[in-house]
Amino acid sequence: MKKIKKYFFFCFAFIIIYAFFIEPSFVWTKKYTIKSTLYHSNHSMTIVQFSDTHLRNQHDVNHLKIVVKKINKINSDIVIFTGDLISDIRKFSYAKEVNKLLLSIHAKYKKFAIYGNHDHGGYFTEAYEKLLLDSDFIVLKNNIKTLYINSQKVSFIGIDDYMLGKREINSTLSKIEKNSFSIALVHEPDVAKYILHYPVSLQLSGHSHGGQFPFPFSPTLFMPPFAKNYYKGKYVLKNNSLPANEFTTLIVNNGIGTSKIPFRFLTPPELTIIEVKTKSGTNLVTSGR
């Protein structure tokens, strides 16, 4: 009996040490490939997504340096940040250093950012936008930016935070340009139920942190609001607004930082790499950068 108690004590101690001091310092990379008839180029498009940095102290800023180095090694076409830069504006005093780091992120075409719920809290709304704009990001707030990437029209739709922002989902999504491969950037993943009424091929979200510590037998028990149905990884969803045999892919990023309690267990910080390709049999166009 004593041996069993000692065994459980050491297991518990290991989990605590690992969850507080080891796993949160990781930066894992997860890659997904999406094939669509709406993407016609014979050159794939590479997107890097990061989310939920929740910067609070110098340690978090140092961790962001590692993240930025990994992003730049990927040499992607597009970089996307899906919100929650900080946890609490009252504890954030690293704007200049963070600006320098975000500015150093490279993308062949553009860098995009949207608001998370923490980016609106504590009168941070305007400061967040200025910081991201000064870091050469395009901040999408209920608007659309269309680019030609590898001669393919790609629309990026940024939805303001569903919890604390201005909800203009329908009026924004109704402006999606025809004949474009459309990507919706939405902090809260469960907003997908509205996104699925529009011709959106890809939704990128964060917010859930993958649960930080998934509860056994009920992984959504401690998930934040609007991250109960979709909370981790890749989901392929039926969308009648898309052509036949096309689906909306939803990708939920684990995030980089932590919220409330600074630990992670089996949900490591991650960068998401999305490679978009044409489905075989579609008409291809020649790249013309």
From TrEMBL:
Gene3D superfamilies: 3.60.21.10. Residues 45-210 form the Calcineurin-like phosphoesterase domain. One of its GO terms (biological process) is lipid A biosynthetic process. GO terms for cellular component: membrane. One of its GO terms (molecular function) is UDP-2,3-diacylglucosamine hydrolase activity. The keyword Membrane applies. Keywords: Membrane, Transmembrane, Transmembrane helix. CDD domains: MPP_YkuE_C. It holds the Pfam family Metallophos. The chain crosses the membrane at residues 7-28. Coiled coil: none annotated. It comes from the Bacteria. PANTHER family: PHOSPHOESTERASE (PTHR31302:SF25), TRANSMEMBRANE PROTEIN WITH METALLOPHOSPHOESTERASE DOMAIN-RELATED (PTHR31302). This is Metallophosphoesterase. It comes from Gottfriedia endophytica.
